[in-house]
Every structure is written in structure tokens, then in C-alpha cells.
Amino acid sequence: MNTRIFKLLVLLLSINFGMQSQTEYKLSENAEMKIDGSSTVSDWAVEVQEATGSFTLVNEVKMEVGASLYSTLEFSFPVEKMESGRGPIMNSKIKKALLSEANPSVTYTSTENKIISVDGNNFILESKGIISAAGVEKPFEVSFDCIFDAEMNTISFEGNKDLTLSMFDIVKPTAFFGKLQTKDELNVKFKVSFTK
Questions:
Q1: 58: β partners
Q2: Which of 60-64, 72-76, 145-149, 157-161 has the lowest mean pLDDT?
Q3: Cβ atoms of residues 91 and 84 within 8 Å
Q4: Which pLDDT tens digit goes with each residue over 114-163?
């Protein structure tokens, strides 16, 4: 193929892609996220506060099973705003375990989002991407129960995911001279909405 024609085709494709409409949905302030865990003494829970995020779509939502949403889901929250409900000592242990001075945020960025089930305006979204915590990045896959409200311009996500501290090389916090030892398993629960 003539080099000049090839360059022209690349330019036209680039312009066409750039002209595709992008719609950005921003994380609503009423986002709920909680991390549940346990120790040798009792169960515990940490509330996530001041989370930020966005769900950016190229073109419109295609409500079909197997449809890949050309989109990017981004979610982040500051470690400093994680609240244990057990006072400043426990909050300090959380920050230390997550190496918050060097890594102030926990983040997730999707690389692929696919609809795997549809029921009216409800659908299940399988999201794959990268999660980063305590300076460690890991491949991450999670399923969301979603509701698309076209009139309110809102997409709601709800779900939970089992994780471990060890997958991020996090040293498990202890207290009372080692009598209280944090267990490795965690469960993250989330109920969030993104609004255009």
C-alpha cells in the first residue's frame, strides 16, 4: 500500500475514534463502602470515606448479554480517611499497615467491562482491571449488580469481593503485645452510584 494512502487512512481512523461521544458519570457523594475482617479477639469493620471515582463510556450503554462496554471504571479512596470506629490507635495501625505515607490511596482502574446478565434495567457487569494498595498492584476481577436509570442519568453498582491482606504483602496488625492478631481474610462491600 502506498505510504501516503496508509497515513491518510490512519489519520481518518484516529479522527473517527476521537469523534466518538464520551459520557462521564461521576461517583455520587452517598457512596457506601465497608471492609470487614476479623482477629483472634473479635470481628471488625472499617468504613471508607471521601471516595472518588468515575465511569466513562464511549457511546451509549448497550444492554445486551456479552456486550463489552467501551468504558473505564476508576475508583479511589484515601487511606487517611479510613475509619475503624475504634479510636485513633486502631486508625493509626491501619495507616501504618497500608504504608499510607508513601501510598496515600487505594485505587482500582478497569481494563475491561462486560455485561454477563440482563433483566430490564438491571444487569450484572463483570469488571477486570488493576487494584493498587500499599504500593502493590494486582490483577483484579469483580462482578457488580447494576441498575441503569436513563431518566435519572444514573448507574448504580452493588457487590462484594473477598480479598486477603497477604496479596498486597500487608503485615497483619497486632495489639495487646501480640494477643490480638489480625486474620488474613477480608470482605469488601460496596454500594455506589455514578451520575452524569
A1: 22
A2: 60-64
A3: yes
A4: 999 999 889 999 999 999 999 999 999 999 999 999 888 899 999 999 99
- Position 193, amino acid: S
Q: What is the pLDDT of residue 16?
A: 40
The architecture in CATH of the region 21-195 reads: Beta Barrel (2.40)
3-state secondary structure of 36: strand
Distance of CA 63 to the CA centre of its chain: 21
* Residue 110: pLDDT over 90: yes
Sign (positive or negative) of CA dihedral 50, 104, 97, 166: positive
Distance of alpha carbon 112 from the chain centroid = 13
Tell me 31's DSSP state.
-
Question: Per 3-state DSSP, what percentage of the chain is helix, strand, and coil (rounded to 5)?
Answer: 15, 55, 30
pLDDT of residue 47: 95
Integer Cα distance of 30 and 178 in angstroms: 37
